[in-house]
What does this fold into?
Amino acid sequence: MTRRRPIRPLGYQALRAVLLRVNARLGSDLVLHDFRHTCALRLAGDPQVPLVDVQAHLRHRHLATTEAYLVVRPEEVIRRIQVHQQATPPTSGPSAPPGWTYQAGDLHLLLGERPE
It folds into this structure.
């Protein structure tokens, strides 16, 4: 909303003028599309928001366009892996049935050798 009267929604040109003033003060080069991109990244990265909802919000015709915003952040991957490792007890791997062993003849057959 505008700060001056009459109070009304901030239009594209007015918002662009605000951003130009901000860029001048900060020495940055932000454009309005940067905010759209940030919004898309945050929505697509939220597991509670279905990607088709992000597609509708951004008004993308094709889901593949929206999929470009599915960016893996390394710190999030590391955090999820650590949570998984803490929740899953370590295992020593599969074990053979008790009392079961290879017979020497089977090993020779398996390896393509002739028994001596």
Remarks:
- The radius of gyration is 30 Å.
- The chain has a mean pLDDT of 86.
